[in-house]
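Worked example (supplementary).
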Amino acid sequence: MVSPILLIAVPLILAFSVPLWGLIHKKLEKFVPLIAFGFNTYLIFRLLPFALTERTISVVIANIKPPFGINLAVGPFGLFFALIIQLVALATAFYLLSYDPPEPSDKFYMLFILLVLGSTGMVLTGDIFNLFVFLEITSISAYALTAITKTGPAAEAGFKYLLLGSLGSTLVLLGIALIYGSLGTLNMAHIAHRISGMDSRLVVAAAILFIVGFGVEAEMLPLNGWVPDAYQAAPIPVVALLSGAVAKAGLYALARVLYTLIGMPNIIMLLLTFGILTMFAGELAALRQNDIRRLLAYSSIGQMGMIMLAFGAFGVNSVFGGVLQAFTHGITKALLFLVLGVMALHTGGATDMESLRGFGRKFPYWSMLFAVGVLSTLGLPPFAGFWSKLALIIGVIIDGHPTYAALALIATFIEVFYFARLLSVIYSSKLSPKLVERSIRNTTIPLLSATFLAAIIIAVGLYPNVFFDLGDSASRALLNRAHYIFSIIGHYLQSMGGV
Amino acid sequence: MFGINMNPYELLAAVFGLGAILTYLLGHFDRHLKTWLTLITLALATYIFLHLPNEYSLESPSLLFGIDKLSWLFGILTLGLGTIVAFALLAYPELSPNFYFMFILNIGASIFLLLSRDLVAFFLMWELMSWTIFAMILGDGGAERGRAATKYLVWSAIGAAFILFAFAILAKSTNSFEWSGIVAGISQMPSGWRVAAIALLIAGFAVKAAIMPMHTWVPDAYAESPHPFTAFLSGVLSKLGIYGIFLAFFVLSARFELVNMPKIFGTHIFGYILAWIGALTAFGASLIAIKQEHAKRLLAWSSISQLGYILFGFGIGSAIGIAGALFHAVSHALFKTLLFLILAGVIKRTGTDRMAELGGLIKKMPLSFIFAVVGGLALAGIPMTIGFPSKWLIYEAAIHQGFIFTTVLIFAASTAVFLYYYRFVFSIFLGELHANHQDVKEVPFPIWFSYILISIPIFWLGLFPGKAMQIFAEIAEQFDLPAVTNFTATTITTPLGSFNALIVGLVFFASFAFGLLLYFIGGRTRKVHQYDTFLAGEADEPVKLHYGQRFFYFLERELKPLYRISVEKIYQFVAEFTRFVADQVRKGFFCGNAQAYLYYMTIFIVILVFAIWRIKL
Amino acid sequence: MIRNIFALLLILVISVFLASSIASIPFGTEKTTVGKYYLDKTIEETGSVNTVTSVVVLYRGFDTLGEVTVLFLAATGLGAILFGLREKRKRKKERPSLIMRTGTRYLFTAALLFGAYVFVHGHLTPGGGFPGGVIVATAFLMLFLAQEGFRVSEKGVKFVEALAGMTYVAIGIAGLLLVGSFLGNFLGTGIPNKLASAGIIPLIYITIGLKVGSEITGLLQNMRETTEYES
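After joint prediction of all chains, the assembly is encoded as:
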């Protein structure tokens, strides 16, 4: 009964049930996300040993076998991303327990659960239209959650996100239409099997549409204009999810489509260029940023660029690095945003650097958590970020793209600069006048939530072997197209007379 | 060991790890507890270090460690000086437990760095060592400290990036992540990649070793870091960069003998280039040291200069050169730590390191003065002290190899040492005592005791250099390098000549003692009060006539054109340019205008269409 | 002006790109494996005579669940953002005429019944859960427009919406437990053309109908309440 479909079904039923809890007692609503993602995390850990076996199983839905029915393609690559999403969701859901949601609260919690559910669905599905549906679920929740505080900037940010996002989704849909029109099937494995029979210019056309479409969610240049505004206006737990879960899901979709469906190395290597451009744009923009929220947003863009670059290198070692970095970045950024959220409680909501000057003097434990996040982002031991960055850079070089690796390293110099400056402001001897001793809300629960994430970072940093095994399985799975096709529709192909 | 059934390497790691955590947690309870815990940790670590078996490999993640003579030498230096500095820290109870945590982690990382035998372990320890320094420089915060620490970390990242890139190239070409595998496979590498990798490595390590042009973080970082820590930073941690350069230049590249390229004066061209860089660093830095007004910065530039000497010795690459460089590494570690500790003591008592505001402290801090003289003798390379054999060997190596211009630079740098060193001693200890400093006392016991501890090897190795030569010869033999073998406990012999350190030292001591004797018994001197001066009515009496400001103004005036050359300007330009581009990106690209973003998307599609789809009508 | 021309050029390029791509799709050839399979097997595998229904609910049922969620999201999102928003309009509202007021009261029941008919018979006649739900919502819309001060209970809407959604997923989970596959048909196919046939399809359509109906009704009410008229 440990079926991966429950990763989607259980949160969905819980999401629908939120108003019912609210009818009993309003305070009960906030526990629902925690129950949903607690269950999901438990289920993911039950499924993890399977992720180490490098097999992909197809979870058939509606009892109709692929390619005629929809299926989930649960393999190491998908499970790894699902793990990232569930961990971030769990920490954030726990954080929500002490968070005052914007009204109407029941809708907020429903949207919250569905945002994660959409991302999870995106990384687990084996059907391309299903991927689109989950993309829609994720995007629409994201738009609504960005604008949910209903302030002017929030509405504007939500609108920009909506504009770019819906255009992106439309392009994805067009791409799907092109593929279905030519191949007559929507199952990803089946498409992968048949795509060589498709006119290559059509394939390229579809690839373009997918790159632009999924690139919006994956924060790729030049489609990421919505990111700084959205990250600044959305509520903190939402931002943690956007960076930790949604962007990863978008990246997953991009990788899956390009590697498994389209499979053209030339197109995949385009990601090298876009990745490095995204990275530079993100890091440079962060350099001049004084507001920490926006700084972290730009840093997020930069890191996504680096991960994209790794995926662009099209080799086992670089994808290995990319997958590991996706994990580290998701957890680390979530940690940074959650801690920032608590920091803001002590300054009356301000998140600019000057308001938080000297925070480290008064709140050593919170600053330590923040420092853990920063040091992990910079790739310093003994934190998880060290291993992932090391694997990524070495992987890209080994797979034959040393120039891009060198450029990525140059971009990290900028990152070191502004993060070092940030740390020196936080640990400054001067105290900002805005800092207050007591915060508006109780901070024990966010403390536990942030400690959970920091503990993961440190644990992975000190004992990375399991992490390496998972990443290795995942990267091999992504590159092993034939195995994917065979696992999902092998029986069908055999019944049609030979593969 | 200790009856614990654990691998000594794991035990060492556990000692450092637990030591750091316990010191941090318990350090809040008592002012001195944290220092004592640090000392205990370091003592235990030293004991284990001295008894480490040869090899060890860790399972998860797979890392390889081992110990050899070179690691042993630098390790003893690190642990020894670290313990002495930690002892001096007893006089600084105001340092937070945070600092001690980072300090122990740093030493632990440094030791394991020296013990690393595979690339991943090495890089891991290197990075851990690097960021703990950042945390220690940052210390209690403050605008200038923040700037210095940030500058340090960025430079450190640049160095680390070079090292990482080089490691990746080496690993890829030789298909191995272990030192032994890389050393074995390096001759198979295509020479272009090989040279690039090793050059990158040297450049990366040069950041830590403060070699020009990677040195610009040093003056600020040294000036702003907590004062006793600067002693450790300059004395020990810069040597880790030297360790790295040694590995890259001698072990990996076998002094580039592997590559068929020309030799100059019997030295491979790369060695020649390194020697030039070292000589220029030595000369340039010592010139800049002359015009410093702050004592800490003066010593910082002096450090850069001395590290240049070491690189120079490596560059020459002959037996004497290598031995001299290694010897100088040891001697610089010792005397620089001593000098910085003395300066730390002075700052502790007077609150400033601006030499124009100090003076006459010999009356109040005689012990510090004596040891400052000792340190100075070592710095200048006077016999009796460890500085003499090391400098002598380097000079011999240069002359023997036939390097003319660089030798001139090195000699000029040594002359400059006399100049700035004299300024250092005079401005602080001699001359007239400032009115504010009437109540200054001698430094507390932990500090002056550490002076004594460090001075012991300074004299011991100065009089009996053979002990050190023994180790250097073993190291050279281990790595198949030319070794100096003609030495005894007290004499060293080179093709150009020999000297007996004990005799020379005793002669110097005798003349010194003679002079002292004359001072005490001879001559009719009348002791006069400091402010009892006669100015022929030109100014109000009493007036302070201490010559402390812009000491070498006349020299600076003559050398003005030389002083205009500054690498820092290039870096400033790069930084300004980056900031400019960053502003353009932020305001120009991320302009917040939704329409613009849509334009970007459309243009992007069009670009992709043209680039990969290729319009065909 | 220049910007408009530039924009036009960009769009032109993209149009050429898309048009040319679509043109090279082999229309009119026998290429759809999946579509053909659905047409052939719908009665025997699902028991529903309406192929559209069987595709929507069974073969691509998971997508439909997703779409229901998307619709739910849109309504929820709208509700969340419009919450508490009150816009004042200066115009006087006209009172609906007598015909409207009386007529809608009777038409309401008819429309409701018709809507229910559409979504219950989804597997037999064209229509199904979505149109049926919309018809139900239209019934309420009529009342919103014609009856002054008519309000639907928010709690009621939420209750029905939530329950309907949960039932849908519960049916899916029941399928998982009973047949080993989420949304699997555990009721058998029945006799085609009878009302009680096609397994879980009518059940699902009923839940969809109720959900969509209550959702859109709530949505309309939300939007209506943001404008206040001067009376």
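Two points are worth noting when inspecting this output. The first strand of chain A starts at residue 57 and ends at 60. Chain A touches chain B through 71 residues (CB under 8 Å).
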